Amino acid sequence: MEIAVTMLLLASGGMIYNYMYRKKMYREIDRLEAWKIAIMNRQVTEELSKVKQLNMTGETEQLFERWRQQWDDIVTIRLPEIEEKLFDVEEFLDKYRYAKAKAVLREIEQALRKIEEDIQTILHELDELVGSEEQNRTEIEQLKTLYREAKKTLLAYRHTFGEAEENLARKLEEIQQGFQRFEELTNDGNYLAAREAVFVLKQQLTDVSNMLQEIPALLTECQTAVPAQLSELVEGYQEMKEAGYILDHLDIEQEIAKQQEKLPQCLDMIRTLELEEAKRLLEEIKSDIDALYDLLEKEVLAYQYVKTEMGQLQEQLEQLDEEAKQTGAETLFVQQSYRLSTKDLEKYRSIEKQIQQLAKRFVFIQARALEERTAHSLIKEELESLAGQMQLLKEEHEQFREMLQTLRKDELAAREKLREMRHQLSEAVRYVKKSRLPGLPETYKLQLDEAKDLLTTVSLRLDEKPLNMEAVQQALAAAAALVERVSEQTISMVEQADLVEKVIQYGNRYRRRYSSVKEGLEEAEQLFRQYEYEQALEQAVATVEAVEPGAFERVRQLLQEEVPK
């Protein structure tokens, strides 16, 4: 029973699926049928009839025949074939050949899509042809107006175009032939080719219009403005030579001749209507002329610089030499009191030598300037170099003088430092006496004596003649370090001695109860009497801390409370 029900359900499901699938396929057939009918009803024939308004010859006739043949092919062959395939699909469905029906439907859709594309191509080409004819009629009239204006300009101002007038007239003749070519193409129905002819005419007229505007200005530049600049340049050059300027190194005359040779080339380019090349060459000539003017101006500025700075540099050099001599005398005087290092003396000798070299070089430059055989620009460069070296030498000389002045300052500073260290050492000794220690450790006394000896050494160094400040500074540094160390050890030693006494006093409370405390404190006392305060403190603290942890910190707090505020 269950098997029968299952089979019945499967059969019912299959029938429902089959019904739904067939319904879907028939909807697809209806859609494609409607698409086919819509294509058949397209107004392609009406659109093609627009072409008949044109000259039905040449290219137009060929295109019309091709489009008409394509449309006829669609209507009489391709669409009927689709109709037959739709019938085939219905037969396949009746025979339950769904796969075959589905494949044919795909073929039909692809065929309809291809027909749509072909129709769009026809309509686009048709619009392009008809539109070209309309645009051609509009634009050709505008171009003819531009042509008449260009021809009128050439005739009215032909003298402003020089030898280029003949080639411009030839350009206009070519444009006239272009108009004729356009008319021929239009009359022959070749509207697309005529459209290309319009583009060519437009570009030609644009070029000629630009030439008519540019050529007069270019001719004025080449024939008047630039030659005038070259003439002015020649006159200026001659005037400067007569005024005594040395200009042979600039080769001005040869450069001017080169620019004059370029002008005929520029005019020839204008004549042949190579205007871009002519403009580039003209800019090159003008740039070269500006460069020549810059060279002459450089010589004028150099001449003024030499006349102005020569005397000033001489005064500065003489002043530097005089100051160096004063520094030399000051150096000899300083050497009586201070010992200068070999490096410092070599530095001064180097300054003297450089001043002599600069003086010789200045005399040489001055002689060249007086001979008037060397360009002032070259003299200027040498003077600028000399001035730069002189400035560096001034700075070096000033540093040396500051070093001499620093020696006395360093001596006074060293004597003041010596006085401060003696006071610091005296304060340490006074502090020790005030503390009433039973005695001093041997190592401390040795360091104290050594510090006194180093201070004596510094004093002796300062009394030497000549004074060697380098040796003074070394001795001073060694003494300062030792005095500081002795001062610190003094404070530490006194504090340790006070702590030993307090810790022993504090630990006495445990002497009778603990034999170890009695022995430890006795050993600490022995070390104290031997002036070994640091070891005595360590022994006392270890003894007391063994029976009362933290006792040392409490003793330190009690000691701090006793210090008068």
UniProtKB/TrEMBL annotation:
Residues 22-565 are cytoplasmic. InterPro entries: EzrA. The keyword Transport does not apply. One of its GO terms (cellular component) is plasma membrane. Keywords: Cell cycle, Cell division, Cell membrane, Coiled coil, Membrane, Septation, Transmembrane, Transmembrane helix. It holds the Pfam family EzrA. HAMAP family: EzrA. Belongs to the EzrA family. Negative regulator of FtsZ ring formation; modulates the frequency and position of FtsZ ring formation. Inhibits FtsZ ring formation at polar sites. Interacts either with FtsZ or with one of its binding partners to promote depolymerization. This is Septation ring formation regulator EzrA. It comes from Anoxybacteroides voinovskiense.
